[in-house]
TrEMBL record:
UniProt feature coiled coil, ranges: none
Pfam family, one: C1-set
UniProt keyword terms in alphabetical order: Adaptive immunity, Cell membrane, Disulfide bond, Endosome, Glycoprotein, Immunity, Immunoglobulin domain, Lysosome, Membrane, Transmembrane, Transmembrane helix
Membrane topology: Single-pass type I membrane protein
Gene (name only): LOC102742806
Name of the molecule in the record: T-cell surface glycoprotein CD1b-like
Length: 349
């Protein structure tokens, strides 16, 4: 069952911030036997989880201060009650018809429902069901449609759902009216957090050797937000088609990490670069050249540290020379020495 979410960014729109544009509720119901079942629920704004479901208390959990959007407490309570009624009824109906539809315990049912906004202002609603991880049915034009994988069992379940007009009407209202209104409100309520741009950090390394005479070049891009990002190994302006892109992985703080690799002959590595485009960079790409991995900071340290050591050594040599010859120091000399030591200390800081 697919998870909606923007994961890539084309080079042409690298400076445009998109942010999340979809809300989806996910249900996972595990049926252990005919008398015991457990349901987990969560709500996602794009790739950001903003709701959970406490199955013990039978209540929604709001994970962000703005998770309620612009809904009143009364509206939120009504939605909670609807979800409670739906979940209890869903479990009972499945258990009652499990043998009829030849479902063998234990089994798991997954569901995802929500809505998505398009830049043009249009809205699309979606609902999908899966059994044991395989697509089972979906909603199209207000109708339940079995998938090819669902076979005749899915067709029978769609026919059963069509008989429950009251439940179907509530579901359609939630999906086609409530969801778009909630999505617009929660995007506005969470705008300060959702639209905060965080610039990526990038660095190069080598991975495990792919074979004799070859290098695995690795471009790491870390700590960026929002999720869409474009990363490519290049030679000049020429994209390297063998570039391999890993999955975009989440950090606990809501930012993302990406690893992009290139298998290349060792003698051909010179002249390659990794280019990173992200909406937080204001159109200024990050470009890392393979082979130029000594930073300006290291160059600065390599120059300044020996100079400081030499200066301190000379200072102590003069002090030792003056003291061994019992040469009195005048106030002017002491001031110069004191000033020199202060200068050294400031330089080291």
């Amino acid at each position: 069952m697919g998870h909606l979410g923007e994961e890539t960014l084309s080079p042409e729109c690298g400076v445009a911030f998109q942010g999340p544009t979809s809300y989806q509720a996910i249900q996972i119901s595990s049926f252990i036997n005919s008398s015991w079942a457990q349901t987990q629920g969560s709500g996602w704004l794009g790739d950001v989880q903003i709701h959970g479901w406490d199955s013990a208390a039978n209540r929604a959990v709001f994970l962000k201060p703005w998770s309620k959007g612009n809904f009143s407490d009364e509206e939120v309570n009504e939605l909670e009650e609807l979800i409670q009624v739906y979940l209890s009824g869903f479990v009972l109906e499945v258990q009652d018809h499990a043998s009829e539809f030849q479902m063998e315990y234990p089994f798991e049912i997954q569901g995802i429902a929500g809505c998505k906004l398009y830049p043009s202002g249009g809205t699309v609603r979606f609902l999908q069901g899966a059994l044991g991880g395989l697509d089972f049915l979906s909603l199209k034009n207000y109708s339940c449609v079995p998938t090819p994988e669902g076979s005749s069992r899915a067709q029978c379940i769609c026919e059963l759902i069509s008989q429950y007009k009251g439940i179907r009407d509530i579901g359609e209202k939630l999906l086609f009216e409530t969801c778009p209104r909630y999505l617009l409100g929660v995007l506005e309520a969470g705008k300060a957090e959702l639209q905060r741009p965080v610039k990526p950090e990038a660095w190069l390394s080598t991975g495990p050797s792919p074979g004799p005479g070859h290098l695995l070049l690795v471009c790491h891009v870390s700590g960026f937000y929002p999720k869409p990002v474009w990363v490519m190994w290049m030679r000049g302006e020429q994209e390297q088609r063998d570039t391999q892109r890993g999955d975009i992985l989440p950090y606990a703080d809501g930012t993302w990490y990406l690893r992009v690799t290139l298998d290349v002959a060792a003698q051909e590595a010179a002249g390659l670069l990794c280019r990173v485009r992200h909406s937080s960079l204001g159109g200024q790409d990050v470009v890392l050249y393979w082979g130029n991995r000594i930073s300006i900071g290291l160059i600065f340290l390599a120059i300044i540290v020996p100079f400081l050591i030499l200066l301190i050594g000379l200072l102590f040599w003069f002090l030792k020379h003056w003291l061994s010859n019992d040469i009195p120091l005048h106030e002017h000399d002491m001031f110069i020495i004191h000033l020199s030591m202060d200068t050294c200390g400031d330089s080291m800081l």
